[in-house]
């Protein structure tokens, strides 16, 4: 009897460890985009939750800061895991048409990109492989002639918002 119990416990522990290896069972670490820009290497390989601006178009899928950060822009591509849950899949497919912007909360694994892609400028490159789209706050399709929506940050090198400074200093992630 003790032998069977020991085997059962060993199998149970092995399945729990294996379940955690795929990254989906591990709770994500809450992080702001500004925190990622400040020290991206500290989040490598981790499953994170981040509120970001998703910029998409023909052969372009990038995440950008939803607010002006007092740091250089992080070059971050985005990929969507084909095994996303149904709710995330529906939210993603609402966005996946043409060109546009979306302000959303994403959960996924943060990685350094080793292969060179034409999607991102040169320099350090990172990617968030999204397994969950938690929320789409705003979205708009765009055309080359139309001006960016007012909720897309602009002229960040000139003025840094008070909210962005507080977000970076406090590590808070506001969900407006």
- Helix count equals 4
Q: What is the CATH topology assignment?
A: OB fold (Dihydrolipoamide Acetyltransferase, E2P)
CA distance, first residue to last residue: 57 Å
What about the largest sheet? 5 strands, mixed, barrel
| Overall shape | globular
Oligomeric state of the chains?
single chain
DSSP summary, beta strand count: 6
Report what the structure shows.
- There is one protein chain.
- The chain is α/β, with parallel strands linked by helices.
- It has a single domain, classed as Nucleic acid-binding proteins (OB fold (Dihydrolipoamide Acetyltransferase, E2P)).
- 26% of the residues lie in helices and 30% in strands.
- It has four helices and six strands, in the order αβαβββαββα.
- The chain has helices at residues 2-21, 33-38, 86-95, 162-170, and strands at 29-30, 47-57, 60-64, 76-80, 100-112, 126-141.
- A five-stranded mixed barrel has the order 2-3-4-6-5.
- Strand 2 (47-57) and strand 3 (60-64) form a beta hairpin.
- The N and C termini lie far apart (57 Å).
- The model is unreliable at 15-21 (pLDDT under 50).
Q: What's the layout of helices and strands?
A:
Blueprint (H helix, E strand, L loop, with lengths): L1 H20 L7 E2 L2 H6 L8 E11 L2 E5 L11 E5 L5 H10 L4 E13 L13 E16 L20 H9 L6
Parallel strand pairs: 1-2, 4-6
Antiparallel strand pairs: 2-3, 2-5, 3-4, 5-6
């Amino acid at each position: 009897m003790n032998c069977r119990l020991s085997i059962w416990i060993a199998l149970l522990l092995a399945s729990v460890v294996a379940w955690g290896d795929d990254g989906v069972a591990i709770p994500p670490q809450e992080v702001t985009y500004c925190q990622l820009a400040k020290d991206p290497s500290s989040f490598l390989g981790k499953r994170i939750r981040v509120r970001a601006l998703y910029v998409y178009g023909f052969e372009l899928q990038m995440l950008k800061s939803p607010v002006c950060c007092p740091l250089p822009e992080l070059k971050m591509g985005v990929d969507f895991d084909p095994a996303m849950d149904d709710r995330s899949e529906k939210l993603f497919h609402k966005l996946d048409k043409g060109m546009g912007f979306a302000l959303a909360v994403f959960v996924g694994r943060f990685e350094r990109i080793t292969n060179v892609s034409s999607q991102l400028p040169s320099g350090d490159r990172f990617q968030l492989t999204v397994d969950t789209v938690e929320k789409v706050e705003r979205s708009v399709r765009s055309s080359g002639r139309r001006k960016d929506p007012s909720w897309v940050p602009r002229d960040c090198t000139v003025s840094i918002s008070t909210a962005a400074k507080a977000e970076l200093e406090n590590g808070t992630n506001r969900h407006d």
